[in-house]
Amino acid sequence: QSALTQPASVSGSPGQSITISCTGTDSDIRAYNYVSWYQQHPGTAPKLIIYDVSWRPSGVSDRFSGSKSDNTAFLTVSGLQADDEADYYCASYTKSKKLVFGGGTKVTVL
Amino acid sequence: QVQLVESGGGVVQPGRSLRVSCAASGFIFSNYGMHWVRQAPGKGLEWVAVISSNGNKKFYGDSLMGRFTISRDNSKNTLYLQMSSLRVEDTAVYYCAKDPAGDTTMVIADHWGQGTLVTVSS
After folding, report:
1. What sign for the dihedral angle of Cα B66, B107, A44, A6?
2. Three-class SS of residue A83?
3. How many CB pairs below 8 Å do chains A and B form together?
4. B33 and B103 in contact (C-beta within 8 Å)?
5. Are A25 and A12 in contact (CB under 8 A)?
6. How far apart are CA A4 and CA A12, in angstroms?
7. DSSP secondary structure letters along B20-60
């Protein structure tokens, strides 16, 4: 099972919106609405920010939103803030009953 | 609140075995599936394995080649990962994570521990 494909880096200015893509295949993202997104600051554990494509866990800012089209999922961060600077990972369930992560995207706030 | 504390990491020689543990508290451990996820130094996340709430269902990442075994002891609120025939490329921080599902499709890691570093080196 190959990793999902994410851009290596995305940047934006404070207040702007950015979108991170996550491309999979017919066997994972297209097949299920089981896409999740994780935020990881340096030296810390990942944190769940989106699950089931577009749902936010309690306590996660509504500036984070998720969507999916065909075999690609998207994470949008609106009103970019300094604390949003982190690595972001997508993950999807697969037809082989496994979980697969994307390679990660480094978000830089300019 | 949910707390997950990994332990058992360290330096181990190639070809040897090691078991890491994850002590859970703050929730009813026996009700939830549990994951292991690893992260090599400077690299991305890699899913390792998941186990259902009662331990009857286990699924593993493709790259492990049958060398790793996930298990749990619900009486001790503890998750385990037994790693054998370790390779240099298994060097990583190993995280345990809780899934909000117990026995159905386990696809979300909603709470994570801080990880334990396993270094495979001669």
Report:
1. positive
2. helix
3. 64
4. yes
5. no
6. 23
7. EEEEEESS-GGGS-EEEEEE-TTS-EEEEEEE-TTS--EEE
Residue B80 CA: distances (Å) to CA of B5, B34, B96: 12, 10, 9
SS3 A84: helix
Report the residue of A52, A99, A105 to disrupt the B interface, i.e. the one with the largest count of B CBs within 10 Å.
Answer: A99
pLDDT in tens, B30-85: 999 999 999 999 999 999 999 999 999 999 998 887 899 999 999 999 999 999 99
Substitution target from B45, B52, B62 for chain A, most A beta carbons within 10 A: B45
Q: What is the DSSP letter of A5?
A: B
* Separation CA A110–CA A49 (nearest Å): 22
Task: List per-residue pLDDT tens for chain A, 110 residues long.
Answer: 678 999 999 999 999 999 999 999 999 999 999 999 999 999 999 999 999 999 999 999 999 999 999 999 999 999 999 999 999 999 999 999 999 999 999 999 99
Tokens representing A33 are 């609405």
Does residue A22 sit in helix, strand or coil?
strand
Q: Decide: helix, strand or coil at residue B89.
A: helix
The residue type at A86? A
| DSSP assignment of B38-49 | EE-TTS-EEEEE
Selection from B46, B52, B38 nearest residue B115 by Cα: B38
Q: Do B45 and A97 touch (CB under 8 A)?
A: no
Beta bridge partners of B39: B45, B93
Q: How far apart are CA B119 and CA B116, in angstroms?
A: 10
